[in-house]
């Protein structure tokens, strides 16, 4: 179905090829997981399949790409669109109408389908993607995750034989992720699609993927085969490349590193728990296994389980304001309705964020997480006496002074770019600080080094990969030295190494007195780095307490559409079977 022979591509204006000798064949009805570090060329590879490279995206191209026997370099893109449907990682890049049902119908109208057939496909796609109730909605009213599901629905309606998904769950909450992967499982079972997926939530897709392809930073395929073979036989090389790995693989590797003989190679949480139940552990090896299970990921949760009285955790959960009151507050929100055009968008809440806290804001898509953050930085105006920054009413703060105190990284990094050069983007905020040109250059150079962006110093920010854009947007926020940092989906588009380096940097800043607030759907990330969590549901604050306490509240996790991360699930199941 898909053939690529010695494919090479270098973007216009660059020197290094992003694809450098790709040779691969993908058969009918295969489900392939495409992995690689940020900027390795994953998105570029899939853009070759529908002819956008080289027909619309210009650069130096050589080699042959065939889809269904057709050479994509000479086949019209409109014809290839009938065979290859792509869902991009940024849904706004492919949504072209104002209304949900119009967006789904758009592609079919171009094919001149019968209205009754269009209606049937629209209904089916809405149901598959959980958007039936939003059919008449304006697209600009949808959350980021809802827009991503809409993009998938508009592709499914075209009934392509090849379905390409570029980080399809990047904007989805845990519940939305589960629903989307359930759709993909059904599509795979139907036997009607070849599915190519770029994804980093690997623990959820190990039962979907038949094959794993890994692109190296050198623009070549460095691993190809069954997931079990690739992840276990190429473990060290993948770690070196910075590729995301399933937690079960990392856990099993830790067991072996600690001297525990493990013959099995599990890929899923279920397989890992079954393996643990079959291992006969002595007292010594049991402790080693527990260390591997908790490791650096859930050590604080494990410690809380061992040494913290559950009633005390719940007391703290119910009265988070009491603990915060003992510390100086970075942010305080007092009960009041948050309205926009006379519509209540956030319910009254009392939220105290002490200085030096690492707080995660979680909840379903559309729960109000980003809205709450926007109120904190005065992008949306609350009334007098509602929000206090460092003890002073936010109404009294000028926007200029707020930006000196709070750094904000938007969910979409392109929304905060203001120049056409990476160096200028980083220097922009420094130019208003009365620094010398030498000092500005020195600070920019340090930040470029820290975020692995030095080679892009003269590049256009809008032409970077999504992961590189995210690193640039974060670097441009950090460079001016604000003490309160808010990051909306900070690891979106990042590879494993860059994601953890960024979060480790946030922890280091917290240790120097910075207050860190992240908005994230990544529960594993929250388990590893956050101290406290806020859970929102349809604009209501339903939880504020420690991360440990949140993971103890099973009914609340269900209510909020959240889930235990694999690290915590394996650790707790291990404790249960080892008692």
Automatic annotation (TrEMBL):
Keyword Oxidoreductase: no
Domain of life, per lineage: Bacteria
Domain ABC transporter, residue spans: 2-243, 331-563
Molecular function via GO: ATP binding; ATP hydrolysis activity; ATPase-coupled transmembrane transporter activity; cobalt ion transmembrane transporter activity
GO cellular component, one term: ATP-binding cassette (ABC) transporter complex
A Pfam family annotated for this UniProt entry: ABC_tran
Keywords per UniProt: ATP-binding, Cell membrane, Membrane, Nucleotide-binding, Translocase, Transport
Compartments reported by the entry: Cell membrane
Record's bilayer topology term: Peripheral membrane protein
Record bears the keyword Lipid biosynthesis: no
InterPro entries listed in its UniProt record: AAA+_ATPase (IPR003593), ABC_transporter-like_ATP-bd (IPR003439), ABC_transporter-like_CS (IPR017871), ABC_transpr_CbiO/EcfA_su (IPR015856), ECF_ABC_transporter_ATP-bd (IPR050095), P-loop_NTPase (IPR027417)
SUPFAM superfamilies: P-loop containing nucleoside triphosphate hydrolases
Family as reported in the entry's similarity comment: Belongs to the ABC transporter superfamily.
Name the record gives this protein: Energy-coupling factor transport system ATP-binding protein
Source organism: Paenibacillus uliginis N3/975
């Amino acid at each position: 179905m898909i053939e690529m022979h010695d494919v090479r591509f270098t973007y216009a204006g660059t020197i290094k090829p992003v694809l450098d000798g790709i040779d691969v064949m993908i058969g009918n009805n295969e489900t392939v997981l495409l992995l690689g570090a940020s900027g390795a060329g994953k998105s570029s590879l899939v853009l070759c399949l529908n002819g956008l490279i080289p027909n619309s995206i210009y650069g130096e191209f050589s080699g042959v790409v065939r889809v269904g026997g057709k050479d994509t370099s000479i086949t019209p893109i409109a014809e290839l669109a009938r065979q290859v449907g792509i869902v991009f990682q940024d849904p706004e890049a492919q949504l072209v109408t104002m209304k949900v049902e119009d967006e789904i119908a758009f592609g079919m109208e171009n094919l001149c389908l019968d209205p009754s057939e269009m209606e049937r496909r629209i209904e089916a796609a809405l149901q598959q993607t959980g958007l039936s109730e939003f059919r008449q909605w304006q697209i600009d009213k949808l959350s980021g995750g809802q827009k991503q599901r809409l993009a998938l629905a508009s592709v499914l309606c075209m009934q392509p034989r090849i379905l390409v998904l570029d980080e399809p769950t990047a904007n989805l909450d845990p519940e939305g992720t589960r629903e989307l992967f359930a759709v993909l499982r059904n599509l795979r079972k139907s036997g009607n699609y070849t599915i190519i997926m770029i994804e980093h939530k690997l623990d959820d897709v190990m039962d979907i993927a038949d094959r794993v392809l890994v692109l190296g930073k050198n623009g070549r395929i460095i691993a190809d085969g069954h997931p079990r073979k690739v992840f276990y036989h190429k473990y060290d090389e993948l770690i070196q490349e910075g590729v995301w790995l399933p937690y079960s693989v990392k856990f099993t590797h830790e067991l072996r590193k600690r001297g525990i003989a493990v013959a099995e190679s599990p890929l899923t949480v279920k397989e890992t728990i079954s393996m643990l139940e079959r291992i006969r552990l002595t007292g010594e090896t049991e402790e080693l296994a527990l260390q591997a299970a908790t490791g650096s990921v859930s050590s604080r949760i494990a410690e809380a389980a061992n040494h913290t009285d559950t009633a005390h955790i719940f007391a703290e959960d119910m009265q988070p304001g009491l603990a915060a009151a003992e510390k100086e507050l970075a942010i305080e929100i007092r009960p009041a309705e948050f309205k926009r055009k006379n519509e209540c968008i956030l319910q009254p809440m009392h939220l105290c964020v002490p200085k030096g806290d690492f707080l995660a804001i979680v909840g379903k898509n559309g729960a109000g997480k980003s809205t709450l953050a926007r109120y904190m930085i005065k992008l949306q105006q609350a009334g007098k006496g509602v929000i206090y920054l460092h003890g002073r009413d936010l109404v009294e703060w000028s926007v200029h002074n707020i930006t000196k105190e709070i750094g904000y990284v938007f969910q979409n990094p392109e929304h905060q770019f203001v120049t056409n050069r990476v160096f200028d983007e980083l220097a922009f905020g420094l130019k208003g600080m009365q620094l010398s040109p030498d000092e500005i250059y020195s600070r920019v150079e340090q930040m470029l080094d820290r975020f692995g962006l030095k080679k892009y110093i003269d590049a256009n920010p809008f032409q970077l990969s999504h992961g590189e854009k995210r690193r640039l947007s974060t670097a441009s926020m950090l460079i001016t030295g604000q003490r309160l940092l808010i990051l909306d989906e900070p690891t979106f588009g990042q590879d494993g190494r860059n994601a953890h380096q960024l979060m480790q940097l946030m922890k280091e800043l917290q240790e120097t007195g910075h207050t860190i607030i992240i908005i994230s759907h990544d529960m594993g990330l929250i388990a590893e780095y956050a101290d406290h969590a806020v859970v929102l549901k349809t604009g209501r604050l339903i939880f504020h307490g420690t991360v440990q306490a949140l993971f103890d509240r099973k009914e609340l996790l269900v209510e909020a559409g959240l889930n235990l991360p694999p690290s915590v699930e394996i650790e707790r199941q291990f404790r249960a079977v080892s008692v």
